[in-house]
Amino acid sequence: MDTEPRPTSPTPEGEPILSFEEFSYRDPKRPDIGVRYDNFFAYFDDSPWGESRRKTPHYQKFASENPEMAASLCAKMKGLTEYTSEALKDFDKDLYEAYLVMRKYVSKNGDLFS
């Protein structure tokens, strides 16, 4: 039986916006994979990879319209020493709030999670 949450709210483009449960889902059979939101956290990571993700048009729009949220997430993520599924759990709600905003600027979830 598949217990993975399924997206239920379609966007105008047809692809669903994930619920919090869907966004933060962790497959207990695949702890190595991490969370559904994959590399979304990297937009707020203090690394060259994070820096390159922050140059994307959708992040630029997000940061210009939500400077406090962007700065807060960057500050919180700066303190992480590892990016495991377990280490990111405390950030799920903050990351989900950012996802909801940024999702409006892209046509599909994969544009944010790659």
Structural account:
By secondary structure, the chain is mostly helical. The chain has a domain at 41-114. The protein has seven helices and two strands, in the order E-E-H-H-H-H-H-H-H. It has helices spanning 20-23, 48-53, 57-65, 67-78, 85-88, 92-102, 110-113, and strands at residues 9-10, 16-17. Strands 1-2 form a two-stranded antiparallel sheet. Helix 3 packs across helix 4 (67-78). The longest helix has 12 residues, at 67-78. The relative contact order is 0.19. Residues 1-12 have low confidence and may be disordered.
Summarize, please.
The protein is mainly alpha-helical. It has helices at 20-23, 48-53, 57-65, 67-78, 85-88, 92-102, 110-113, and strands spanning 9-10, 16-17.
Keyphrases for this structure?
114 residues, mainly alpha, two-stranded antiparallel sheet, globular
Radius of gyration: 14 Å
Number of strands: 2
Secondary structure class reads: mainly alpha
Oligomeric state of the chains in view: single chain
Biggest pleated sheet:
2 strands, antiparallel
Distance between the termini: 27 Å
Give the DSSP E fraction (strand runs of 2 or more residues): under 5%
Compute the number of helices. Answer: 7
Question: What is the average per-residue confidence, as pLDDT, rounded to a whole number?
Answer: 84
Percentage of residues assigned to helices? 40-55%
Series of secondary-structure elements, N-terminal to C-terminal: EEHHHHHHH
Shape: globular
Low-confidence stretches: 1-12
Q: Which strands sit side by side, in order, in the main sheet? A: 1-2
